Amino acid sequence: MGPILHSISTTVVVAEFILGNLSNGLIMVKNCIDWVTKGELSPMDQILIILAISRITLIWEVLFIWVKTQPISFITKEELKIAMFCTILSGHFNLWFATALSIFYLLRIANFSWQIFHYLKWRLKQLIVGVLLGSLAFLLANLIKTSITLEERFHQYGGNTTVNSVETEFALFSELFLFNTPMFSLTPFSLALISFLLLIFSLWKHRQNMQLNARGQGDPNTKAHTNAMKIIVSFLLLYATYILSLLTAWIAEKHHIELIQIICMITGLMYPSAHSLILILGNSKLKQTSLLILRHLGCRLEEQKIPTT
């Protein structure tokens, strides 16, 4: 890779890294402050805190892999194993808590006359806890499968303590993560997709009940449906793009197309960074806090520009 391309790609990765840390950090800090001051948090805010923590962790892991896959570096087997397990952990909680958030939006906003829907709606907290506890079975299976596969691959290297080939280490990491992720992410992704489709159906029923009058577009229920669907569909699209970028990067590595690998890494990093920004814009409390911070920074910059007499 040429020095100019390397500089551009590094700049973009760093920019996404900063954006991801700032957006997820705002979600985490604001909700933690509310937790301390008010003594309690809503289930949605609790989900947002853990989701933000998992995404910050994932962003740092992507940066670690980016640094370690540069030609001037090498990665030991222990570092690769730790990076792989940490990525699985953060990716697992990232995906399942985003799915739990989708279920939360569905049961809080949608309105159906089905008995099972009302049963789940009144037991929303227990349902979310049950879903997250059940997801631990997927996590355990993923960790065991990855551990077995890693040991088999390390055995193929003849017991060397380092994996000092950039192509080999990137191929091993991307291959393990790529082919394990769809297997263990199909269930939560399907749950989020079902939540989105049910929200569309609920909005359609609501619009029918409103008879498409002049107030149909502006009533609070319609706005709540629309906001929730934007958040869920952005999650689905960004996560699908994330998986697709992994697949494309793995294929590009096999054909030694370095530019495609870089583009895929930049595209994949959008998932934990951009979706958290969308969550902020869709949450009135977080949006107001971010605007206050931006106004404060703007005032500070204006004060610094004013020359002292």
UniProtKB/TrEMBL annotation:
* Membrane association type: Multi-pass membrane protein
Q: State the UniProt keywords alphabetically.
A: G-protein coupled receptor, Membrane, Receptor, Sensory transduction, Taste, Transducer, Transmembrane, Transmembrane helix
Which InterPro entries does this UniProt record tie to the protein? TAS2R
Cell location = Membrane
Major place of localization? membrane
* Sequence intervals crossing the membrane: 47-67, 82-107, 127-144, 183-204, 231-252, 258-281
Similarity-based family: Belongs to the G-protein coupled receptor T2R family.
Kindly provide the name given to this protein in its UniProt entry.
Taste receptor type 2
UniProt organism field? Microtus ochrogaster (Prairie vole)
Lineage per the UniProt record: Eukaryota, Metazoa, Chordata, Craniata, Vertebrata
